[in-house]
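Researcher: We plan to redesign the surface later, but first we want a full-length starting point. Tokens attached.
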């Protein structure tokens, strides 16, 4: 089981948010977003911020850092990501989802969120599930294993509500990569749109506000 940082917004959480960080960061990276995102009238939530394992990254001359998979190319086409690493991270995230189930929160009460590499694993995991999650949050990211996804995505995964957002000035994951991913998801029948914000590879206040609105709607529908 991955090491995690956890915080709850009240006694007896009724929803869980598992949030995956980006390349080179760790679970602490998005923990400060909780007070910015959470609204006073929301039900009690448990936030789970896992630490990705440390591994050498080919694109960074083999330098080891926390990552959900190796990156072997700058090209956002086929072969950018280490497929075995993506699948290993899917399994690790599934273990975290199973732990939430064991703690009384089934999949339909779990939001899976991620930024950059973490967002890629969010998409890869959510699309392949037999039991749909409450929702998927994919920020400043792209669809990994795009060629394999049509054969591996499930009807339940494709029906999962999705919040996908990107910065128009992103120098790390180009906006075009996010848009291409949304188009691929739409072609598979997913209700996918890409929200755009005037920012680089980061998050902004307007995005957090819109995400809060979206999460509130998910909680109300559960």
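Model: Full-length starting sequence:
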């Amino acid at each position: 089981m991955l090491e995690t940082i956890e915080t709850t917004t009240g006694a007896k959480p009724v929803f869980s948010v598992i949030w995956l960080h980006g390349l080179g960061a760790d679970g602490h990276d998005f923990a400060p977003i909780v007070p910015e995102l959470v609204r006073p009238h929301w039900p009690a939530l448990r936030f789970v911020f896992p630490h990705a394992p440390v591994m050498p990254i080919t694109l960074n001359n083999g330098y080891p850092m926390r990552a959900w998979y190796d990156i072997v190319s700058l090209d956002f086409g086929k072969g950018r990501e280490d497929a075995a690493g993506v699948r290993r991270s899917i399994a690790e995230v599934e273990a975290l989802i199973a732990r939430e189930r064991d703690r009384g929160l089934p999949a339909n009460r779990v939001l899976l969120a991620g930024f950059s590499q973490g967002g890629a694993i969010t998409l890869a995991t959510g699309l392949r599930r037999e039991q749909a999650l409450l929702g998927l949050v994919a920020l400043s990211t792209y669809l990994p294993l795009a060629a394999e996804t049509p054969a591996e995505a499930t009807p339940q995964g494709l029906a999962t509500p999705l919040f996908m957002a990107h910065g128009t000035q992103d120098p790390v994951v180009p906006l075009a990569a996010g848009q291409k991913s949304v188009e691929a998801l739409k072609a598979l029948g997913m209700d996918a749109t890409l929200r755009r914000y005037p920012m680089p590879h980061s998050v902004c206040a307007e995005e957090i506000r819109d995400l809060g609105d979206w999460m509130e709607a998910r909680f109300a529908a559960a």
